[in-house]
Amino acid sequence: MKINKLLAGLLASVTLIASVAQAAELAVVSGDTGNGLAFLQEQLKKFEADTGNTVTIVPMPSSTTDQFGQYKLWLAAGNADIDVYTTDVIWAPQLADQFLDLTDAAKGVVADHFPSIIESQTVNGKLVAIPAYTDAPALFYRKDLLEKYSKEVPKTWAELKATAQEIQDGERASNPDIYGFVFQGNAYEGLTCNALEWVKSYGGGQIVEADGTISINNPQAIAALEEIKSFVGTISPEGNLAYMEEESRGVWQLGNAVFMRNWPYAYALGNGDDSAIKGKFDVAPLPAGEGADARSAATLGGWNYAVSKYSKSPDEAIKLALFLSSTEVQKNRAIQQTNLPTIASLYDDADVLKAAPFMAAWKEIFQNAVPRPSAPTKANYNEVSSKFWSAVHNTLAGDGTAAENLELLEADLNDLKGSGW
Question: What is the rounded CA–CA span in Å between residue 354 and residue 359?
């Protein structure tokens, strides 16, 4: 009996030692602050309890530009201290060679995510990162003003222009500061997002196509930019060419715009107690353009989890990435953080819709999502985007026509492609 007890004790000790030996010490980088950081810590406690692993959060600056720069330094040095990276949707092609292929690990869940988001994280058939939460812009509209003027939500940019002008003219007597439409017109990445939507909505392509074809210099793209150019100084203020997201939201939230293009974060803020438009607005898909291939288009944003190929515990790191992108965590994110899920079924989840009813409107918007051309342009995406937004900004500012600026852009992109991308 004593021998049996001794053997049992030894076996238990061996099992415990093996369990401890198998536990991994992992590190995940995060640019979250405030409530976002607390949320991540809460989720990681569940992962640690379930797996026996420990996870350290490596804080990052909130600036995505600074994050990307640090990532490149760490990965170029083969840093084995970081296991899981939080990545922007456009970084996949630029960092693909440094991350593990998650195709096999995620094969049981990949169909749950919006296809366009999975596509954005797939490079040469390799799933570089698994989506965690997403972003896509919408058309914000003043439902009270549309009702007042007996107008429908515009389905095309031409309809938006006409409706915005009529309501702007009618409201100027009581509110001389009101404009019909505000968007992000400054010369930065946000203008690339806006202009990609305009061009794609007119059937003008995606700047550079998936096969590397430079498509931006075409009649539909020219028509799209000329249409939006006609907004500036009429239904959009001249100053809109200096607006980023917050400047647009500021005008909108003061009650000085009929329509706005912006990201989902502006919804909750617009319904805040200090907002002049609380309860007076709603959202819809962005308008379509004109032409045979016209459609609504919304630039894809969002964040993902990638596993470093230098991780000392790749299998456990993959488990962490899958956990942080799981239905359970995405549901918690939607309820607690109002981050938009990449899993389609959560847009019909009763708990999610009770906590964040506005999310129901985004399901259709994501079905129109368009990725930026980071996959075909790879490490050159930032330069491609900069050249594109510069050409668009020049057009909107009246510095050359859309045709002239897109012809110059095409030549610049061909030169860039010729040097190798």
Answer: 10
Identify the CA nearest to 204 among candidates 215, 191, 193, 213. Answer: 215
- pLDDT tens per residue, range 245-264: 999 999 999 999 999 999 98
Tokens of 334: 């939607």
Cα–Cα distance for residue pair 119/125, rounded to 1 Å: 9
- Residue 34: pLDDT band with limits 50, 70, 90: low
What domains appear along the chain, each with residue ranges and CATH number?
A: 24-128+302-370 (3.40.190.10), 138-299+374-418 (3.40.190.10)
Q: Is 269 exposed, middle or buried (0-12, 13-18, 19+ CB in 10 A)?
A: middle
Record the pTM.
0.80
